[in-house]
Design brief:
Blueprint (H helix, E strand, L loop, with lengths): L16 H10 L3 H14 L3 E2 L8 E4 L2 E4 L14 E2 L6 H6 L9 H12 L11 H8 L3 H12 L11 H11 L5 H9 L1 H6 L2 H8 L3 H11 L17 E2 L3 E6 L2 E6 L8 E2 L1 H9 L3 H38 L9 E3 L4
Parallel strand pairs: 3-7
Antiparallel strand pairs: 1-8, 2-3, 4-5, 6-7, 6-9
Helix pairs in contact: 1-13, 4-6, 5-6, 7-8
Protein backbone atom coordinates (compact mmCIF):
# COMPACT_ATOMS: atom_id res chain seq x y z
CA UNK A 1 0.00 0.00 0.00
CA UNK A 2 1.36 3.36 -1.08
CA UNK A 3 1.03 6.37 1.18
CA UNK A 4 1.86 9.86 -0.13
CA UNK A 5 1.82 13.13 1.77
CA UNK A 6 0.03 15.91 -0.09
CA UNK A 7 -0.18 19.57 0.85
CA UNK A 8 -3.00 21.84 -0.35
CA UNK A 9 -3.65 25.54 0.16
CA UNK A 10 -7.26 26.50 0.81
CA UNK A 11 -9.17 29.39 2.34
CA UNK A 12 -11.77 28.66 5.00
CA UNK A 13 -13.83 31.14 6.96
CA UNK A 14 -14.97 30.25 10.45
CA UNK A 15 -17.11 32.23 12.87
CA UNK A 16 -16.01 32.83 16.42
CA UNK A 17 -18.38 32.27 19.33
CA UNK A 18 -18.78 36.03 19.72
CA UNK A 19 -19.74 36.40 16.05
CA UNK A 20 -22.31 33.63 16.36
CA UNK A 21 -23.85 35.31 19.42
CA UNK A 22 -23.87 38.66 17.65
CA UNK A 23 -25.73 37.16 14.68
CA UNK A 24 -28.17 35.56 17.09
CA UNK A 25 -28.96 38.96 18.64
CA UNK A 26 -29.36 40.43 15.15
CA UNK A 27 -32.00 37.84 14.28
CA UNK A 28 -34.06 38.36 17.44
CA UNK A 29 -37.57 39.75 17.36
CA UNK A 30 -38.41 42.77 19.51
CA UNK A 31 -39.84 40.59 22.29
CA UNK A 32 -36.85 38.25 22.21
CA UNK A 33 -34.46 41.19 22.39
CA UNK A 34 -36.30 42.62 25.39
CA UNK A 35 -36.08 39.27 27.21
CA UNK A 36 -32.40 38.93 26.28
CA UNK A 37 -31.57 42.38 27.67
CA UNK A 38 -33.53 41.74 30.87
CA UNK A 39 -31.62 38.51 31.48
CA UNK A 40 -28.28 40.20 30.88
CA UNK A 41 -29.14 43.12 33.20
CA UNK A 42 -30.18 40.72 35.97
CA UNK A 43 -27.00 38.68 35.55
CA UNK A 44 -24.52 41.53 35.11
CA UNK A 45 -24.35 44.35 37.72
CA UNK A 46 -22.38 46.52 35.30
CA UNK A 47 -25.34 46.73 32.91
CA UNK A 48 -28.23 49.09 33.57
CA UNK A 49 -31.22 50.53 31.72
CA UNK A 50 -31.60 54.23 32.60
CA UNK A 51 -34.56 56.17 31.23
CA UNK A 52 -33.64 58.26 28.24
CA UNK A 53 -35.53 60.98 26.37
CA UNK A 54 -32.86 61.81 23.78
CA UNK A 55 -34.39 61.70 20.31
CA UNK A 56 -31.80 62.11 17.55
CA UNK A 57 -33.08 62.15 13.98
CA UNK A 58 -30.81 61.19 11.10
CA UNK A 59 -31.40 62.58 7.60
CA UNK A 60 -30.24 60.42 4.72
CA UNK A 61 -31.35 59.73 1.18
CA UNK A 62 -34.86 61.17 1.39
CA UNK A 63 -35.76 59.57 4.69
CA UNK A 64 -35.45 60.61 8.30
CA UNK A 65 -34.63 57.96 10.86
CA UNK A 66 -35.68 58.55 14.45
CA UNK A 67 -33.79 56.70 17.18
CA UNK A 68 -35.85 58.22 19.99
CA UNK A 69 -36.70 56.29 23.15
CA UNK A 70 -39.51 57.11 25.53
CA UNK A 71 -39.05 57.86 29.20
CA UNK A 72 -40.45 55.56 31.85
CA UNK A 73 -43.55 57.69 32.46
CA UNK A 74 -44.47 58.18 28.83
CA UNK A 75 -46.69 55.67 27.09
CA UNK A 76 -44.55 54.41 24.20
CA UNK A 77 -46.06 54.90 20.78
CA UNK A 78 -46.36 51.89 18.49
CA UNK A 79 -45.34 49.56 21.34
CA UNK A 80 -47.34 46.74 19.85
CA UNK A 81 -50.00 46.07 17.25
CA UNK A 82 -53.10 43.91 17.81
CA UNK A 83 -53.02 40.77 15.71
CA UNK A 84 -56.05 40.43 13.40
CA UNK A 85 -59.10 39.25 15.29
CA UNK A 86 -60.64 35.98 14.20
CA UNK A 87 -64.33 35.24 14.58
CA UNK A 88 -65.07 32.20 16.72
CA UNK A 89 -66.68 29.18 15.08
CA UNK A 90 -69.63 29.54 17.46
CA UNK A 91 -70.34 33.14 16.37
CA UNK A 92 -69.75 32.29 12.72
CA UNK A 93 -72.31 29.48 12.79
CA UNK A 94 -74.88 31.43 14.79
CA UNK A 95 -74.57 34.29 12.32
CA UNK A 96 -75.75 32.00 9.51
CA UNK A 97 -79.01 31.12 11.24
CA UNK A 98 -82.19 32.95 10.24
CA UNK A 99 -83.49 33.66 13.73
CA UNK A 100 -86.89 34.81 12.44
CA UNK A 101 -87.49 31.49 10.67
CA UNK A 102 -86.66 29.39 13.76
CA UNK A 103 -88.99 28.36 16.52
CA UNK A 104 -87.84 28.72 20.10
CA UNK A 105 -87.26 24.95 20.32
CA UNK A 106 -85.21 24.89 17.10
CA UNK A 107 -83.11 27.84 18.23
CA UNK A 108 -82.42 26.19 21.59
CA UNK A 109 -81.49 22.91 19.93
CA UNK A 110 -79.20 24.51 17.34
CA UNK A 111 -77.44 26.59 19.98
CA UNK A 112 -76.92 23.44 22.05
CA UNK A 113 -75.50 21.54 19.05
CA UNK A 114 -73.17 24.41 18.12
CA UNK A 115 -71.89 24.60 21.69
CA UNK A 116 -71.30 20.82 21.59
CA UNK A 117 -68.84 20.97 18.67
CA UNK A 118 -65.29 19.97 19.54
CA UNK A 119 -62.11 21.84 18.59
CA UNK A 120 -62.10 20.31 15.09
CA UNK A 121 -65.73 21.21 14.36
CA UNK A 122 -67.03 17.66 14.88
CA UNK A 123 -70.30 16.99 16.74
CA UNK A 124 -69.89 14.92 19.89
CA UNK A 125 -73.58 14.33 20.57
CA UNK A 126 -76.23 12.55 18.52
CA UNK A 127 -79.68 13.87 17.69
CA UNK A 128 -81.19 11.42 20.18
CA UNK A 129 -78.89 12.62 22.96
CA UNK A 130 -79.69 16.26 22.22
CA UNK A 131 -83.44 15.49 22.23
CA UNK A 132 -83.11 13.69 25.57
CA UNK A 133 -81.10 16.48 27.22
CA UNK A 134 -83.35 19.27 25.94
CA UNK A 135 -86.58 17.24 26.19
CA UNK A 136 -87.44 17.85 22.56
CA UNK A 137 -89.01 15.82 19.76
CA UNK A 138 -86.28 13.51 18.29
CA UNK A 139 -87.42 14.40 14.75
CA UNK A 140 -86.89 18.09 15.49
CA UNK A 141 -83.40 17.37 16.88
CA UNK A 142 -82.58 15.34 13.75
CA UNK A 143 -83.62 18.26 11.52
CA UNK A 144 -81.47 20.59 13.59
CA UNK A 145 -78.44 18.32 13.19
CA UNK A 146 -78.93 18.32 9.42
CA UNK A 147 -79.33 22.12 9.48
CA UNK A 148 -76.04 22.41 11.35
CA UNK A 149 -74.30 20.12 8.85
CA UNK A 150 -75.46 22.36 6.00
CA UNK A 151 -73.70 25.46 7.37
CA UNK A 152 -70.26 26.80 6.44
CA UNK A 153 -67.49 25.78 6.72
CA UNK A 154 -68.27 22.53 4.86
CA UNK A 155 -67.76 19.51 7.08
CA UNK A 156 -68.82 21.16 10.32
CA UNK A 157 -71.11 19.01 12.46
CA UNK A 158 -69.64 15.76 11.15
CA UNK A 159 -69.45 12.69 13.39
CA UNK A 160 -65.84 11.86 12.50
CA UNK A 161 -63.18 12.46 9.86
CA UNK A 162 -64.73 10.17 7.26
CA UNK A 163 -68.12 11.82 7.70
CA UNK A 164 -66.47 15.26 7.48
CA UNK A 165 -64.80 14.44 4.16
CA UNK A 166 -68.01 12.89 2.86
CA UNK A 167 -69.97 16.05 3.69
CA UNK A 168 -67.48 18.18 1.79
CA UNK A 169 -67.55 15.92 -1.27
CA UNK A 170 -71.34 16.01 -1.31
CA UNK A 171 -71.30 19.81 -1.01
CA UNK A 172 -68.89 19.97 -3.98
CA UNK A 173 -70.98 17.54 -6.05
CA UNK A 174 -68.16 14.97 -6.23
CA UNK A 175 -69.63 12.22 -4.08
CA UNK A 176 -70.70 8.79 -5.29
CA UNK A 177 -71.51 5.41 -3.78
CA UNK A 178 -67.93 4.11 -4.07
CA UNK A 179 -66.46 7.21 -2.41
CA UNK A 180 -69.02 6.96 0.40
CA UNK A 181 -68.06 3.33 1.02
CA UNK A 182 -64.35 4.16 1.11
CA UNK A 183 -64.76 7.15 3.43
CA UNK A 184 -67.16 5.52 5.85
CA UNK A 185 -65.44 2.16 6.27
CA UNK A 186 -61.97 2.09 4.74
CA UNK A 187 -60.42 5.51 5.27
CA UNK A 188 -57.44 4.20 7.28
CA UNK A 189 -56.71 1.44 4.74
CA UNK A 190 -57.02 3.98 1.93
CA UNK A 191 -54.56 6.35 3.61
CA UNK A 192 -52.14 3.47 4.25
CA UNK A 193 -52.25 2.38 0.60
CA UNK A 194 -53.86 -1.02 1.23
CA UNK A 195 -55.54 -0.95 -2.18
CA UNK A 196 -55.56 -4.69 -2.80
CA UNK A 197 -57.19 -5.34 0.58
CA UNK A 198 -59.93 -2.78 -0.15
CA UNK A 199 -60.56 -4.27 -3.60
CA UNK A 200 -60.90 -7.77 -2.15
CA UNK A 201 -63.43 -6.61 0.45
CA UNK A 202 -65.46 -4.10 -1.58
CA UNK A 203 -64.79 -4.80 -5.25
CA UNK A 204 -63.84 -1.14 -5.74
CA UNK A 205 -61.04 -0.87 -8.30
CA UNK A 206 -57.67 0.67 -7.57
CA UNK A 207 -58.41 3.40 -10.12
CA UNK A 208 -61.50 4.50 -8.16
CA UNK A 209 -59.50 4.42 -4.93
CA UNK A 210 -56.83 6.71 -6.43
CA UNK A 211 -59.53 9.09 -7.67
CA UNK A 212 -60.97 9.19 -4.16
CA UNK A 213 -57.54 10.02 -2.75
CA UNK A 214 -57.14 12.83 -5.28
CA UNK A 215 -60.52 14.26 -4.27
CA UNK A 216 -59.64 14.05 -0.56
CA UNK A 217 -56.44 16.06 -1.03
CA UNK A 218 -58.48 19.17 -1.85
CA UNK A 219 -60.60 18.88 1.32
CA UNK A 220 -60.17 20.30 4.81
CA UNK A 221 -60.03 17.61 7.53
CA UNK A 222 -60.40 20.26 10.28
CA UNK A 223 -63.34 22.60 9.50
CA UNK A 224 -62.72 24.66 12.65
CA UNK A 225 -59.04 25.31 11.90
CA UNK A 226 -59.66 28.84 10.61
CA UNK A 227 -61.49 29.87 13.78
CA UNK A 228 -60.17 30.53 17.24
CA UNK A 229 -61.55 31.16 20.71
CA UNK A 230 -58.24 32.62 21.90
CA UNK A 231 -57.83 36.21 23.04
CA UNK A 232 -56.27 38.71 20.67
CA UNK A 233 -52.49 38.51 20.58
CA UNK A 234 -50.04 41.35 19.97
CA UNK A 235 -47.01 41.65 17.75
CA UNK A 236 -44.13 44.14 18.01
CA UNK A 237 -42.79 45.64 14.75
CA UNK A 238 -39.10 46.43 14.30
CA UNK A 239 -39.70 49.64 12.31
CA UNK A 240 -42.52 52.18 12.07
CA UNK A 241 -42.62 53.93 8.69
CA UNK A 242 -44.67 57.03 7.89
CA UNK A 243 -44.68 59.26 4.80
CA UNK A 244 -44.73 62.90 5.98
CA UNK A 245 -44.34 66.04 3.86
CA UNK A 246 -42.69 64.27 0.95
CA UNK A 247 -40.24 62.16 2.91
CA UNK A 248 -40.19 58.98 4.92
CA UNK A 249 -40.06 59.19 8.71
CA UNK A 250 -38.81 55.87 10.02
CA UNK A 251 -38.64 55.00 13.70
CA UNK A 252 -36.72 52.08 15.13
CA UNK A 253 -39.23 50.59 17.53
CA UNK A 254 -37.05 49.78 20.54
CA UNK A 255 -37.91 52.91 22.53
CA UNK A 256 -39.95 50.80 24.93
CA UNK A 257 -36.81 48.86 25.89
CA UNK A 258 -34.86 51.88 27.12
CA UNK A 259 -31.17 52.48 26.61
CA UNK A 260 -28.55 50.04 27.86
CA UNK A 261 -25.32 51.29 29.39
CA UNK A 262 -22.58 50.52 31.88
CA UNK A 263 -23.34 51.38 35.49
CA UNK A 264 -20.82 54.02 36.64
CA UNK A 265 -21.58 53.30 40.30
CA UNK A 266 -20.71 49.60 40.11
CA UNK A 267 -17.76 50.38 37.88
CA UNK A 268 -16.29 52.71 40.54
CA UNK A 269 -16.89 50.15 43.31
CA UNK A 270 -15.21 47.35 41.41
CA UNK A 271 -12.27 49.54 40.38
CA UNK A 272 -11.70 50.52 44.03
CA UNK A 273 -11.26 46.89 45.11
CA UNK A 274 -7.70 45.64 44.56
CA UNK A 275 -8.28 41.91 45.17
CA UNK A 276 -7.39 39.59 42.30
CA UNK A 277 -10.79 37.80 42.35
CA UNK A 278 -12.72 41.07 42.14
CA UNK A 279 -10.52 42.37 39.32
CA UNK A 280 -11.02 39.17 37.33
CA UNK A 281 -14.77 39.32 37.92
CA UNK A 282 -14.80 43.00 36.94
CA UNK A 283 -12.89 42.34 33.71
CA UNK A 284 -15.19 39.46 32.76
CA UNK A 285 -18.42 41.36 33.49
CA UNK A 286 -17.16 44.51 31.79
CA UNK A 287 -16.23 42.59 28.65
CA UNK A 288 -19.67 40.95 28.60
CA UNK A 289 -21.43 44.28 29.13
CA UNK A 290 -19.53 45.87 26.26
CA UNK A 291 -20.29 42.89 24.05
CA UNK A 292 -24.04 43.09 24.78
CA UNK A 293 -24.09 46.84 24.09
CA UNK A 294 -22.14 46.26 20.88
CA UNK A 295 -24.61 43.59 19.69
CA UNK A 296 -27.58 45.85 20.37
CA UNK A 297 -26.00 48.79 18.56
CA UNK A 298 -25.04 46.59 15.59
CA UNK A 299 -28.67 45.50 15.38
CA UNK A 300 -29.81 49.13 15.38
CA UNK A 301 -27.26 50.06 12.72
CA UNK A 302 -28.40 47.15 10.56
CA UNK A 303 -32.02 48.23 10.92
CA UNK A 304 -30.96 51.78 10.08
CA UNK A 305 -29.20 50.67 6.90
CA UNK A 306 -32.10 48.51 5.81
CA UNK A 307 -34.76 51.16 6.42
CA UNK A 308 -32.74 53.83 4.58
CA UNK A 309 -32.43 51.58 1.55
CA UNK A 310 -36.18 50.96 1.74
CA UNK A 311 -36.80 54.69 2.13
CA UNK A 312 -34.80 55.51 -0.99
CA UNK A 313 -36.50 52.72 -2.94
CA UNK A 314 -39.99 53.87 -1.89
CA UNK A 315 -39.24 57.58 -2.31
CA UNK A 316 -42.29 59.36 -3.68
CA UNK A 317 -44.69 56.55 -2.79
CA UNK A 318 -47.17 57.89 -0.23
CA UNK A 319 -49.28 55.77 2.09
CA UNK A 320 -52.51 56.78 3.77
CA UNK A 321 -51.35 55.65 7.23
CA UNK A 322 -48.21 54.51 9.04
CA UNK A 323 -47.22 50.92 8.50
CA UNK A 324 -45.08 48.45 10.43
CA UNK A 325 -42.10 46.42 9.27
CA UNK A 326 -41.05 43.06 10.70
CA UNK A 327 -37.49 42.10 9.89
CA UNK A 328 -37.05 39.08 12.13
CA UNK A 329 -38.96 36.21 13.70
Amino acid sequence: MRMDAKQELAQKQTLSQAQVQSLHVLSMTGDELEQFVQREVEDNPLLEQPDCTVAPVLQTGGCRVSLSRASGEEEPAYRDIPAPERTSLRDHLRGQLDERALTAAERRCLYYLIDSLDGQGFLDVSAQEAASVLQLDPLLATRCVERLRSLDPPGVGARDLGDCLSLQLRRAGKSNAAFETLLQGYLEDLAAGHFQKITQKTGISRLIQHRCLEAIRSLNPHPAAAFSEETVGYVVPDLICEYVDGEWLIQINDRWMGSVGISTMYERLLRADNSQAVREYYSERLARARFVISCIEKRRVTLLNICCVCGRTAKGVALAAPFAVFLSG
